[in-house]
Amino acid sequence: MREYDTYIFDLDGTLLNTLGDLAASVNYALHRYSMPEHTLEDIRWFVGNGVKKLMERSVPDGMANPRFEEVFKTFREHYMEHSLDTTKPYPGIPDMLNGLKCRGKKIAVVSNKFYTATQELCRHFFGDYVDVAIGERENIRRKPAPDTVIEAMRLLGVSSDNAVYIGDSDVDVATAANSGLPCISVLWGFRDRAFLEEHGASVFISEPCEILMF
Description:
Blueprint: E1 6-9, E2 16-17, H1 19-32, H2 40-46, H3 51-58, H4 68-82, E3 88-89, H5 93-102, E4 106-114, H6 115-126, E5 132-136, H7 147-156, E6 163-167, H8 170-179, E7 183-186, H9 193-198, E8 204-205
Parallel strand pairs: 1-4, 1-6, 4-5, 6-7, 7-8
Antiparallel strand pairs: 2-3
Helix pairs in contact: 1-4, 3-4
Enzyme class: hydrolase
Family: Belongs to the HAD-like hydrolase superfamily. CbbY/CbbZ/Gph/YieH family.
Protein name: phosphoglycolate phosphatase
């Protein structure tokens, strides 16, 4: 089996279970403006394309709603204050990251989450395990565009030759393809195997420790 030198991870649904805090902030904002709230399962299917798309899917009539920007601002402010309320790494993630670092591997995280939130969450939960953490910002296209992956490799000082991308969604499968990287799809995240297979995933793992086999 091929051995990689660089591991580029998605964040939400791959390294961290953030669903509860995202849902709480979405529903806080919706309640604030007397809009219908959503179940945790609804939010599970709304995430994956960045927080603005999450809110577009959550707010009635999406961005066409005249109060959309207000609701989005409220969500953002609430989430930045409450992103650590229930969020935690999936079981086995810290041990897996430690195993990679002990082998001298380079690790990056690329996310469609707010740039600041991405860096703060990585710093809080993973410390020195993550060499580079990149989130959504104005001057860089969000996934599935390859921009964040390319930026991560530039900051790491590596090429795509011995790099692999790991994620939990169809967006991640497309991001890996657009970046010219092989993709490992995890089965503990926000999407199931059948959905991932429908969107082109072909390599799967069920436990974080399996990443150490690549």
